[in-house]
Amino acid sequence: MLNTPTTAPAAPAPNAEVRVDYDDEGFAGWVVSSAGPYAPVWCQVEIDGQHRASIRADEFVPFIGERHNGHCCLNFSYRVPAYLRDGRAHRVQLTFTFVQDGTTVRCGLPVTVRTFGAASRHPQAGYSVCRAQDVMAVPADIVEAEAWTSPVPAILFPEGPIRRVWRLCRDADGTVLSGFPHAEIVTHPPALSFLTDVHVRRSTGAVYVPGHGVWQDSCYLSDSRRIREDLERLERGDLDVPLIEGPVLLASTALNRNYFHWVMDILAGVHACARLLGPPPPLLTPPLASWQADSLRLLMGEVTYATPAEEADPSSDLVRCRRLIVPSQLGGVGLFPDGTVTDLFATLRGRVAHDPQARRQIFISRRDSDCPRITNEAALAVTLERLGIETVVLGERSFLEQIRLFKEAELVVGAHGAGLVNGGFCAPGTWMVEIRSSNYLNPCFYHLSGVCGLSYASHVETVPHREDGAENAASFEVDIERMVGLLHRLPVSCVS
Predict the structure, then answer these.
(1) CATH classification (class only), 360-495
(2) CB–CB of 408/296 below 8 Å?
(3) On the CB side of 93, how many CA atoms lie within 13 Å of its CA?
(4) Contact, 452 vs 345, CB < 8 A?
(5) Architecture of domain 16-115
(6) pLDDT tens-digit profile of 264-293?
């Protein structure tokens, strides 16, 4: 009897089959590897270019069918951190690692663009919100994005992770301030979305994606009734609107006339585009006030507009764009400024001359505002002037004059309001004293001061809640004696 040599069966080539399902909270799925039915598999989670977690696929479940010779699939799941469930588009990269025949094998899935927590970000009911995954948006590099080479919407992400900083909010004497004993500063890198053949309302910045609703990053604080009406008209197809071939850069939001949102959303979005792509394409803006046009000229030099910047004809408010670039609402729409915003302030500050010897101390009056906050403002201003703190009305100054004023300041006092965003033009170490009401403790200027290196103090007055819910419109009286006591504790020469 002949002994016939036998050959051991060849080991299977390393491979893995993976399924992943995403939702607003994170993702879950299963993996089957060629290493064997019970070989452990690890999943490395990378979001926005930063490693977030290592999770083990270790929940054994009998596999469906016979495709894998009776192997078990290994289930896994991951709930993204709360600060990533922000309704913004994120790059997600999953890499699966296992050992086969003594060799470490890595199988990576393609990068995908996903949005987490979008439902909580859009409380308005009655219209569809288009998220990145709804249109299979893909991450792109600069060359691909500018060439519009992707057949689906593309999103350009610059390098840089989301950063989280916990910072105690303390008074000048070290005591924890009321209102928010601590606050989380979250700084996001920006993102630019490249969309094809969409409709845009110039006055609100709302972007409508055919068949999917309003683009996720374009409906912040928009009028939900107007959005529903626009979507209904688009669905009926009864719109005859101007066509812009593009490419154009969207420079509009629902709060275009608000100084805070103009700086933190619009100017920052234009600046993000310039930093990433070079000179931006023509801007698609709402009709502009003179100070808005001045700010764009200071930032960009010569400005090109896709439509006349002074045009207020309602018939030209809704337009169709063949190619549109939409900057993300940076870091949650201005509340959490990132490096783009701080660089914006530095760029504008560097283009305005000032007196380097000046040490101005200013109190921001809101007597020109439609929403006064301090009922005894006149008496407060007189007291502050005795301390050497001058009263200024920002609405009476040009955009350049406001930058110069804050560049020369060593102390800024004012009620919560859009004018405090000028604090970004102050030198690091400048004191910002924000006067706030207890029923509206918005931390945006506290966050701004932290990111821009300012010193921050807060004076809080107890104010009952309003029945109409308009807490940010509440007026209140300031305890002047207590306010002066806070100022005397600051390490600032004239008031210490």
Answers:
(1) alpha beta
(2) no
(3) 13
(4) yes
(5) Sandwich (2.60)
(6) 889 988 998 888 888 889 999 999 999 999
